[in-house]
Amino acid sequence: MFSSVAHLARANPFNAPHLQLVHDGLAGPSSSPAGPPGVPRRPRKLAAAAATEEYSCEYGSMKFYALCGFGGVLSCGLTHTAVVPLDLVKCRMQVDPQKYKGIFNGFSVTLKEDGVRGLAKGWAPTFIGYSMQGLCKFGFYEVFKVLYSNMLGEENAYLWRTSLYLAASASAEFFADIALAPMEAAKVRIQTQPGYANTLRDAAPKMFKEEGLKAFYKGVAPLWMRQIPYTMMKFACFERTVEALYKFVVPKPRSECTKAEQLVVTFVAGYIAGVFCAIVSHPADSVVSVLNKEKGSSASQVLQRLGFKGVWKGLFARIIMIGTLTALQWFIYDSVKVYFRLPRPPPPEMPESLKKKLGLTQ
């Protein structure tokens, strides 16, 4: 057991290519190719599907990207809406820590003041906003992953795959936050300003009348600060965790696992990624919550006023929410791929051309 833990620790997502080759046992000519001897291994690109005939579309086709975007709509829209009560309490803890002193106290005070229906405040902008964000986040991630992989070439795409995941996810989230910002602003107003508005129909016209379009997009920069690091961690950590689980934990290759077993691995990897995501993005999340509540403040003013301790308020609630939410998002997204028979590439394998350069094959 301890040797497995040691292997996992060494195989962290941010290894340099040379170190990764050493950990894979592929850094010298004395190494032997992975897999049973005598069985030829088929070369495959980082994002290439193993056998196109069993799939409903070709990897990288417009249909593939469209269905990935649809999976993102379901995975983000449904999960974020499901955790609206927890998100509401977390936001109130961030903007009024004196009144909402903890997660359990926050729920108690909210139920006492607003009743059970009050816990659902902001569900409409949450569902619309995060559905749009999921469409761009997952759909564009697949687009940028293929684009950057082609730019790097097969060998570099394998060697620098963690950097590839980071760059593709950051690019996708840049556009996803532009789609999310208006609904996120409305949601925070509804959840954190008692008496301001109870529904999206009330909040949106009121915000536009008071501040114009600026009201909907003044939080986009803090959103980038929060969501881009979050998404980079979400995708890179997930991809490398899946790779590590199949390599060190799962007792058989992914090709021999049932679809249900593969989805279990997806869920576990998603939860691990979600915990790290919550920690990385929480300070900026606190700034976004306060900024959307206050009309005249800037992000730097809010950050200065909150201080180091203040930006970490509500972290425990966010870890629970984001960990569960991220795991469910990946589970739903992968389930959509399974249902529509989309290509789901196995964990990346060293290209044959690189093996030949390293003297691993004849």
Structural key phrases:
362 residues, mainly alpha, 15 helices, transmembrane helix, membrane, mitochondrion
Task: Give a concise summary.
71% of the residues lie in helices and 0% in strands.
Per CATH, the class reads Mainly Alpha
Q: Which CATH architecture is right?
A: Alpha/alpha barrel
Oligomer: single chain
Question: Ranges with pLDDT <50 over ≥5 residues?
Answer: 1-16, 27-53
* Residue-averaged pLDDT: 82
Query: What is the share of helical residues?
Result: over 70%
Give the terminus-to-terminus CA distance.
Answer: 35 Å
What's the total number of strands? 0
Total number of distinct structural domains: 1
Number of helices: 15
Transmembrane segments: 263-284, 315-333
Organism: Octodon degus
Pfam families: Mito_carr
GO biological process, one term: mitochondrial phosphate ion transmembrane transport
Polypeptide structure, described:
With 362 residues, the chain is mostly helical. The protein has one domain (57-343): Alpha/alpha barrel (Mitochondrial carrier fold), CATH 1.50.40.10. The protein is built from 15 helices and no strands. Helix 8 packs across helix 11. It starts with a helix and ends in a 5-residue tail after the last helix. The relative contact order is 0.15. Residues 1-16 and 27-53 have low confidence and may be disordered.
Topology (elements, then pairings):
Layout: H1 2-10, H2 17-23, H3 62-82, H4 84-95, H5 103-118, H6 123-152, H7 154-159, H8 161-192, H9 200-211, H10 214-217, H11 220-249, H12 259-293, H13 299-310, H14 315-339, H15 352-357
Helix pairs in contact: 3-6, 3-14, 4-5, 4-12, 4-14, 6-8, 8-9, 8-11, 11-12, 12-13, 12-14
